[in-house]
Protein 1
Amino acid sequence: MMTEGKHLFSILVDNQPGVLSRIVGLFSGRGYNIESLCVAETLDPQVSRITMVTIGDDQIIEQIKKQLFKLINVIKVNDLTGSNCIQRELVLIKVMAKPEHRAEILRIVDIFRAKVVDVGPEHYTIEITGNEDKLLAIQNLLKPMGIKEIVRTGNIALLRETK
Amino acid sequence: MQLTGAQILMKVLKEEGVDTIFGYPGGAVLDFYDELSRTDFNHILVRHEQGAVHAADGYARASGKVGVCLVTSGPGATNTVTGIASANSDSIPLVIITGQVPTHLIGNDAFQEVDIVGITRPCTKHNYLVKNIDDLERVIREAFYIARSGRPGPVLIDIPKDVTNAKADYKGFESVKLRSYNPTYEPNLKQVRKVIELIQQAQKPVIFAGGGVILSKASDDLTELARKTQIPVTASLMGLGAFPGTDPLWLGMLGMHGTYRANMSIGEADLLISVGVRFDDRVTGKLEAFARYAQIVQIDIDPTSIHKNIPVSVPLVGDCKITLKHLNRMLVDVDLGNVSGKRQPWLDQISAWRKTTPLAYEQKETIKPQYVVEKLFELTKGQAIITTEVGQNQMWAAQYYHFNRPNHFITSGGLGCMGFGLPAAIGAQVACPEKIVIDIAGDGSIQMNIQEMATAVQFCLPVKIAILNNGYLGMVRQWQELFYKKNYSCTNMEHAPDFVRLAEAYGAVGLRAKKPEDVEPVIQKALSINRPVIMDFVVEREEGVYPMVPAGKAITEMLLV
Ligand SMILES: Cc1ncc(C[n+]2csc(CCOP(=O)(O)OP(=O)(O)O)c2C)c(N)n1
Ligand SMILES: [Mg+2]
């Protein structure tokens, strides 16, 4: 029952100043974890969507859902965990590119359908989108070449239409 | 019609049914105060902004209305924080209006600028910064709606000075609609039916009432349910008065300083119907042992209260009053059989607990604090509104003043905030001018907001203050006695003012009782005086509050005397 697990929340909120800080404050004040967080306006400019990955056991996750929903500016809280949704994250990876590794790096980039977006004398910067597994896989392959820096956007997700 | 921000505030307050404002002026709210002088609001000028919030809290609890405060920016605003946090813990509906520096100075570290919205975000139900005069009218209406609906709570509105004198069209009353806020009042009737089944099966049921019963004005419905089903009732500190304290089904308070029979009955119960409670750690003790044989029903308007600390068999999200009404209505069609016969063994067991281990103290040559509270109960015929400070005084008030009606016990329960009682008494007295209002106080706590004596005197509010003067921060001393080998580190409070002369200095009346035989005459005298009175009861210094459940123990593991 009490298994710690990652949960993916999609939260619709009023697009107003201070709303994000209410949400973040709730997490820090109650000692919940935020693993990643993405915020942007939706089609309706008065509404923003927050996509958040959090960790906790069932009881904590239930509290997080209820506490989020209790905030006056929160319109909807959807737990997308385990649902049929598309998840994506964009990552920029600055990898050391010694002459003897360049071909290998380009091959990996090709296989993962990533892109080299910046080239320097000693590095490549690679852009890749995907879900968590894919991103982990490419990181693992690039690690031996030496990853200098990495930046991730955090997960976004959208439910699939039922066919 | 074009009105200034200040005029809009006054107009909406009127429309929201406000008649009293607790406040303190300053630069950022000069426009409000200027406008206020042309209205007929009853403005109670406190002596410290914390006092304003506690007074509004006491007013709200005694009247059932929303309490309103008006204070200036910066220090005025920060002084309200403790009061707001207390009201937030106890779900008390308040609207706090703070002045703010002009919009063009916000973020500039201007004189008397603080980010009060940021500071109070975690201790309000909601808060607003109104930067645009066109939003002001709507925001004030929303604030009142949010404060009083659902699980009530304090709402703060921060208004920059330029907004107070800018002009906007006044739209007039419209009902508030918020797409993101819709409290659930109506319970799921299937769940209500389950409760009825559980009641039918239970051998050892207990009802546990909390502050939610009082907030939703559900005391009569709860009492009806208990009497109809012959289920004994206990309450949290916040729930005292939700069920008559002199009824045979009354178990006394539950928890750390609960009665023996209340705590024992929770230990043995097979059904616990909890209404408007949140299972605070002061009530549950060790969680795994709490009501371990019971199926637990939890009725609460706030879904976050359910399953938070205690696993619940039947969660019921809804307004306490509406839910109890459904329950009582549906019980009419249910054959409960011979309830009193069926309940007898359980009630006998409870009586036995009561007989072997009642609340008790021994009155010898020095005054016992419990004796003072008992005499207060007796001489006011249980009719007074009692506010308390925090500590032993608060617990003795809870144990020995038997509350027969809701809204008559006003205490800082969740936050346990010393300095609450006197300003809260002032607020309660404003709300109920015809009632006797008594602050049962400690010698330490009373010094935390003693300045409000001046407020009581100025506004002819005849509150009575009964100081149980033990010359100690008594409750802390009790913990040191029991758990720190009597190392009374920094809890001696013998350096106190002469409270009788202090009362006189404020223009109030001061009385003192040093011997048990003084207690009654002093109380009688105080009750006969239609002015604020401080009664200084010099009590047994090292008396303890018992029963006591040590922190982390099961509530059935009580220290007795
Ligand atoms: C603002 C605040 N500070 C500190 C405490 C911790 N505290 C709890 S009870 C207590 C002692 C109160 O002393 P007194 O008012 O004399 O009451 P007594 O227990 O002696 O009746 C203290 C210091 C508190 N509850 N509130
Ligand atoms: Mg004391």
Protein 2
Amino acid sequence: MKDHKNIYLPIKAEVTEVIDESPTIKSFVLKPEHEFAFKTGQFIELTLDNIGEAPFTPSSSPLVTDEMQVTIMKTGYVTDRIHEFKGGEIVGIRGPYGRGYPLEDMFGKELLVLGGGCGFAPLRSLLYNLSAEQDKIEKLTFCYGSKTPGECIFKPYIDELRQVPKFEVLRSVDKVEEGEEWNEDVGVVTCLLDKIEVNVPNSVAVVCGPPIMMKFGTYKLLEMGFPEDKIYLSMEKNMSCGLGKCGHCMMGKYFVCKDGPVFTYEEIKDQPDIWK
Amino acid sequence: MSDFYRLTKTDWDSALRSFISHYTILAPVEEEGHIDYTPIDEEDVERITYNKPKPTTPLKTLLLPVKESLADPSSPENPWLIMGIPACDLHAKSLLDQFYLDPEYPDPFYKNRTENSIFIGTDCHGHQEHCHCTSYGFKPYPTANDDIHLVRHGTDVYVSPVTEKGEKFIEKLSGSTNLSKCDQSAIDWIESKRKETVEDLDEHNKNLPGYEKSGELINASDEEIWKEYGDDCVSCGACATICPTCTCFLLIDKPGLLKQRQVDACQYPAFEKVAAGEDPLDALHKRFSNRYMCKYVWRPERFEELACTGCGRCIEACIGGINKNELIKELANNA
Ligand code: SF4
Ligand code: SF4
Ligand code: FES
């Protein structure tokens, strides 16, 4: 009975390039040993051989299947090690897993995308996808916040986005360090929402970022009149298997790896510890 | 009741001896007051216990070892013949199937093992101190999830095939032994023993709230009770390891991009902690209540099925002496 597929076995991928995004964030270009398709918002499990495994949502376009990028903040054991990579290393990938962004719910609508810090990573994949299908949406407003100008990631991509006719991009930083140059907003990212025009009844919102920002972002959107089922959140939880079995990602009755990582606020609002 | 066949215990024992070369036989054997699933050699056949609750470790441990390499999912050489499985463990198997045989991602290790096993369920005559299956609507005799039911009655053994796999096994058995259909008196005896055990269990647990009620009480509880009972918890995870329905595990990385699966539990610190530091279960009483919420509230919501079989093993295993049923009774009294 050797034909049962081993769901725990990663495929190999080569790290072909390492891109510095900020002092603590790097992007890694991965070339899988064979084509690897994913939907925007789905995640992969990335294995560093004999070291550990961690989940990441690709930050590259889902329309490209021969390579992908993951954008990783240095936060612990596995991510510290991958930050030492120079290119040429072999890693393992499993997936793609979970439920990503529902593009079909976004077509014909205005989009309000709210991102914070490394939360831009999954959103970039969505933005690539939507800019390729811009004729299907009304318009898109992207509000992005980070701590300092130096910590803003994907700077060249921001310039690209600003060229897309239906897209508007606003950025804010919590503070500007001495000697840093910044001519956009200063303040928490939610204050950008006061500056934009949205036709709420025909809009869908997407939020991705650190828990505290997701929480206040969601509350602000509710205040603006967004219905609970039109706010999409990407949840970050501890994960091990990615397959809905190991229990690590449980959030009440949901397995974030399988039922998410993207949920509407309506789906999860009664579950425990959603902002933790 | 399904058809039962009778054979003598002597014939059954010699059949088992002859099966040892084709099957790995795992059956309950009593040692120093503890019954456990044990690999059976020829000389062990007579030591197998019948109709007696219950193996100390659950069936889960055979199907999902505490630690296992996930390199090669090929099946064991000999099929397994697992005997003496109480109804609670059989029900637990169906709960494990929800995870491990999930059609989207069937676990090849679990799948091979279960496909390669013949499950023989047994009636419990009598119960242990903490057994409370009937309070949760389960019977102390197999009603589903086994291939064969088997009951011993003095010098006789009664067997009843349930699945095709079970029928094939009984066919094999009939080739080497003298099988006859059970007469009414045998059926009456089986039924009276079943009734007696159900009545005993009901009486023994008469103050314990039912499953749904327990779920409501747990869901509505405040942290006080979890702090009070959790105070005796040492985060050892024994309750989860021994629980036939706790499924959590951790994947550990090994050279060659291979994984090893190891039993894990929400009772251990940092089980849900993310790399950035947030930890929903950052206090002992939260971890302690998490296990109850999982079994009595979340898993029933998700799978529309109870996730506690009432086997009582977590009570037996708790180093801190925490008694789940006392906690639930206290919740009921305070409500
Ligand atoms: S929670 Fe306790 S009584 Fe319920 S199935 Fe698990 S070990 Fe048995
Ligand atoms: S809980 Fe019920 S089925 Fe399980 S061993 Fe005890 S009496 Fe038997
Ligand atoms: S990561 Fe294992 S169940 Fe979700």
